[in-house]
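Lab channel / #folding
Pinned by the channel admin:
"Please post every new chain as: sequence first, then the structure tokens as a reply. Keep commentary short and put observations after the output so the thread stays searchable."

First post following the new format, from NK:
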Amino acid sequence: MDWTANVAPHFAWDEVVTGTPEAVTVRRAGLAADANARAAMTKTVAVAEWIRGLTGRPVRITSGYRGPHATGSQHDTGHALDIQVDEMSALELLRLVYEHRGASPHPLRQVIAESLHTSLLTLDKPMAAKCGVWLHIAIRTGVWARASTLPWATSVAPVSGDRVYAVWRA
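Reply from TO:
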């Protein structure tokens, strides 16, 4: 597989496989061997490309394909990406995607403004590389064709315990 080839006009395949060098090696092998995951990732990246068009700004993929492990994550099957757009907040990006959701090139399953921090206030601050805030986008197709219980949400990380998710309302 040519990892430098484009999967979409502004995204190369090597951008959709993220993690430590060891994880990237395993994930690349998994994606190269899984035609269904490649097809799903192509659709998911098309949504990121569409978001790039909405914002008129580059979109950074912070977490992409994480397979081939079966952890139950949409990332494992190529159906999800975590993205950032510099100088936009995760909530601002969430609102923009929500307002234009009908024009998405593929049905959206989940769009979640997420933070590694404990406060929802961080979701309203401009994103930048390694800021710990991102927008999770997932498509609704294939093994993830069913509707999500949290299609539009926010998420923060508590000091201890599991992430806290909340329904987001426009």
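NK: The longest helix spans residues 35-55.
TO: also worth noting, The longest strand covers residues 108-115.
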